[in-house]
Design a protein that fits this description.
The structure is a single chain. This protein is α/β, with parallel strands linked by helices and about 350 residues long. It has helices at about 15-40, 55-65, 70-100, 110-120, 130-135, 140-145, 155-160, 165, 175-180, 245-260, 275-280, 300-315, 330-350, and strands at about 40-50, 190-195, 200-205, 225-230, 265-275, 320-325. The chain is built from 13 helices and six strands. A six-stranded mixed sheet has the order 2-3-1-4-5-6, sandwiched between helices. Strand 4, helix 10 and strand 5 (about 265-275) form a beta-alpha-beta unit. The longest helix has 28 residues, at about 70-100. The model has no long low-confidence stretch (mean pLDDT about 85).
Length: about 350
């Protein structure tokens, strides 16, 4: 009778081969984890010229998606910045009255009013009544109507209309106050946000010309560029260069960024910002005086928006998503960021062969 039996044939693994096999397994696992992490978290670089509103967008993302509400301590720290904004904008209006030779309704000497204003702020309080009277002054309003000819913060009307509240001893800035505050970005600031279960690492950098040399350090491992351009500034010049139109500067900067070797294959999200200010300005300032190639109706917001959009898309139109934005409008910006999230994650799924 034949009884089957099992025959085993074993090849002994050498210690070197065992070590190599274990190393390969560890490396394979780490690579899978890194790939999964890259797929999970997208790195976004927020760029634009100074005064474009990109830092306002950064704050909006924090308010809506970071899971880290602005603390009471941070709000208290912003009081000084907001009071400085009020003082600086009031002084800019008075200096414009002097430069443009616009007399005040009160017939007061502008230098004397400036001295009184400085003295009041040095005393440690916001001179609410003085500033309210100043904002009502016909001469100041005439200067405000010519604001494109000098440097003035966009939030001036908002600040002046909220003086009573902002000048109170117990004043604590609201989210909207913080969005409206002008605080120059001089360093690289990073933040993680979660938009509909997708993690993003957002990087904000200063937009002034002198700060752009720092940008190169942020160019690596970026998935997408969020580029912000304030199209309301078509009739304004740079603070650091009185010969250069701000929209022209934005177009030149956009070309340098999106056509560079770092980003020419990357998705670009273009925010054409400050459309609320643009719409208000068109009845006061003819876009054809600054861009003679404009052929639409100069008081029609849609014509002007589309004109500037075509200019940016002529620089680069592929892999570009665009949005017309008002960075201080929290609810609308929330919807826009969710649309951006959908576009970027869909592109990422293609990259990882999910779609």
């Amino acid at each position: 009778k034949f009884t089957p039996f099992a025959m085993s044939c074993c090849v002994r693994e050498t210690p070197e081969a065992a070590d190599q096999r274990r190393s390969d397994k560890i490396i394979s696992r780490l690579l899978k984890e890194q790939k999964a992490e890259r797929a999970e978290r997208l790195h976004l670089l927020l760029l634009g010229a100074a005064e474009s509103g990109k830092s306002t967008l950064f704050r909006q993302m924090r308010i809506s998606f970071s899971g880290q509400p602005i603390s009471t301590h941070e709000r208290q720290a912003m009081v000084v910045t907001i009071h400085q904004n009020i003082r600086d904008n009031a002084k800019a209006l008075l200096l414009a009255c002097k430069a443009l030779q616009i007399p005040l309704d009160s017939n007061q000497d502008v230098d004397a009013v400036l001295a009184d204003l400085d003295a009041a702020f040095l005393a440690g309080s916001v001179p609410v009544k003085m500033l309210q009277a100043l904002w009502r002054d016909g001469g100041v309003q005439a200067a405000f109507g010519r604001r494109s000819s000098f440097q003035l913060g966009d939030s001036t009307p908002y600040l002046m209309q909220n003086l009573e509240r902002m000048g109170a001893d117990d004043y604590l800035p609201s989210d909207q106050d913080i969005l409206r505050a002008r605080q120059r970005t001089t360093t690289v600031v990073e933040m993680e946000v979660d938009i509909q279960d997708q993690l993003f690492r957002v990087i904000d950098v200063g937009g002034q010309r002198g700060l752009r040399r720092k940008w190169i350090h942020c160019f690596y491992n970026v998935n997408s560029v969020l580029f912000v351009a304030a199209i309301s500034e078509y009739d304004q010049v740079l603070q650091e260069d009185s010969r250069t139109n701000r929209v022209v500067e934005a177009l030149n900067l956009y070309q340098a960024i999106v056509c560079s070797v770092y980003f020419r294959e990357k998705i670009v999200v273009l925010f054409l910002n400050k459309i609320d200010l643009l719409d208000d300005k068109l009845v006061l300032s003819d876009v054809r005086d600054y861009f003679p190639d404009f052929t639409g109706t100069p008081t029609n917001p849609s014509d002007v928006r589309d004109f500037f959009l075509r200019k940016f898309l002529a620089v680069r139109g592929t892999n570009v998503f665009h949005h017309f934005t008002c960075a201080t409008d929290t609810q609308t910006m929330k919807y826009i960021f969710e649309a951006v999230r959908h576009a970027l994650t869909a592109d990422r799924m293609h990259e990882f062969h999910v779609l």
